[in-house]
Amino acid sequence: MYAFDIERPATIADAIKALSAEEALALAGGQTLIPTLKQRLAAPSRLVSLSAISEMQGVCRADDGSLCIGAGTTHAEVAGGAGAYPALAALAANIGDPAVRNRGTIGGSLANNDPSACYPAAVLGSGALIITSTREIAAEDFFDGMFATALEEGELITEIRFPVPEMAAYMKFEQPASRFALVGAFVAKYADGVRVAITGASEEGVFRWSGAEDALGADFSAAALDGLSLEGAGMITDLHGSGDYRAHLAAVMTKRAVAAAG
Does one domain contain both 150 and 62? Predict the structure, then answer.
């Protein structure tokens, strides 16, 4: 490590002001940033900790019935507080290990947008709304490829609003060491249709599988997916598996998610 200054603002306004300083970086749960600093892949002169901002923490229900989660809410708190959305609570409960779940935050995960992270699948699969310090961003407009989002410099995620579906489930094939998703599938059924989001598979990050959505919209059953498949081209190939393998896993995990939801 190396010397740097750290601030711990108590309000969003103070955090935005602190982040306007040269070479300042936001520190949420630190599950990605701290290892990055240790490896000297980043060298900010100032860290702005978001952990003391109470207005960015907690889970509640909005008047329209959606589930509102503060960006600073830890995975453990989402797991314990999102009972109105069981699939989301279960997803959060299976992220990493207890140490990760009690430090990492939903906002930090989304801002980092790791291509194998679980929350992006829930956000895209739910059609959630990302609330930032300056605007509202629809899920379809937020994710912009591996480790890239629509966030502008100095912009903070403050809250995520999830429409609660009629039924939903998330299934992932875990990488055993990290518990990241080698492939994960989030399926949610709403009155106006079905959404299917796949994480961990594509070189472009999380994406919706429209073919599966159409099939499940007509018949919400695992059998409706028989014969459907994704192409291996454009899927991640690494030491854990080929693109074709991940494409196959995406279909398998989607079927399992539909079975679990139903």
Answer: yes
